[in-house]
Amino acid sequence: MTQDQLKQAVAQAAVDFILPRLDDKSIIGVGTGSTANCFIDALALHKGAFDGAVASSEATAARLKGHGIPVYELNTVSDLEFYVDGADESDENLNLIKGGGAALTREKIVAAVAKTFICIADASKLVPVLGTFPLPVEVIPMARSHVARELVKLGGDPAYREGVVTDNGNIIIDVFNLQITNPVELERQINAIVGVVTNGLFAARPADMLLLGTPEGVKTLSK
Ligand code: 5RP
């Protein structure tokens, strides 16, 4: 199976899981990236089964609207049963690295509101220790050098992601060469640096369920 087929399989598995749990008032949180796009396309076939969605990025909002799915502002929504999104890495405890698509802050906000965070990923994303994928950090532009120096003190090698501006008007610093053995603590430490908006560790609020696409079928890992 190709990586694309694995992504489509996990996207379909997520739709199959949430569909019987939705009603015509349900609003679904939707992530960003190529796997989340597969989910949007699969979800669009069941538009009548739910009310609409909250998007974690402008790109996702555009794709949802393109399918005719109503997109709500998060501030107008009190209940979000599910948030479905991809990841750049997951460990076996469902701690994640996200932000390869620079949408980490909005993704983290929508995940915080959702009752159940379902992560969908192909098998290449499951790792024993997080950190091979460089950790994205969203930063207020004027704090770039300060934050980079502080990240070096935490043992990382920061690199400015050239040419990328987030949906919030900020920049991304990718942190290379981290061995993330305590993701909750590192998430807290990086978020405490002045000028950091948030970082791509989802450990304080990990996924609740990981649907992992493997050549043998979709495997489910739960907290
Ligand atoms: C975007 C993300 C994505 O979920 C992550 O980059 C995975 O993307 P893909 O499904 O394309 O591999 O965090 O900010």
Tags for this entry?
223 residues; Rossmann fold; Alpha-Beta Plaits; six-stranded mixed sheet; four-stranded antiparallel sheet; 13 strands; binds ribulose-5-phosphate
Order of adjacent strands in the largest pleated sheet: 2-1-3-6-12-13
What is the gyration radius calculated from CA atoms? 17 Å
Number of helices: 6
Care to count the β-strands? 13
Indicate the CATH class of the largest domain: Alpha Beta
How many distinct domains? 2
Bound molecules: ribulose-5-phosphate
- Helix and strand string, N-terminal first? HEHEHEEEHEEHEEHEEEE
Question: How far apart are the first and last residues' alpha carbons, in Å?
Answer: 27 Å
How much helix is in the residues? 25-40%
Describe this structure in words.
- The protein is an alpha/beta fold.
- It has two domains: about 5-125 and about 205-220, Rossmann fold (3-Layer(aba) Sandwich), CATH 3.40.50; about 135-200, ACT domain (Alpha-Beta Plaits, 2-Layer Sandwich), CATH 3.30.70.260.
- It is built from six helices and 13 strands.
- It has helices spanning about 5-20, 35-45, 60-65, 105-115, 145-155, 185-190; strands at about 25-30, 50-55, 80-85, 90, 95, 115-120, 135-140, 155-160, 170-175, 195-200, 200, 210-215, 215-220.
- α1 packs across α2 (about 35-45).
- The mean pLDDT is about 95.
- The structure holds ribulose-5-phosphate (5RP).
- Ribulose-5-phosphate binds near residues 32, 88, 98, 102 and 104.
- The site of ribulose-5-phosphate has 17 residues, from α2 and α4.
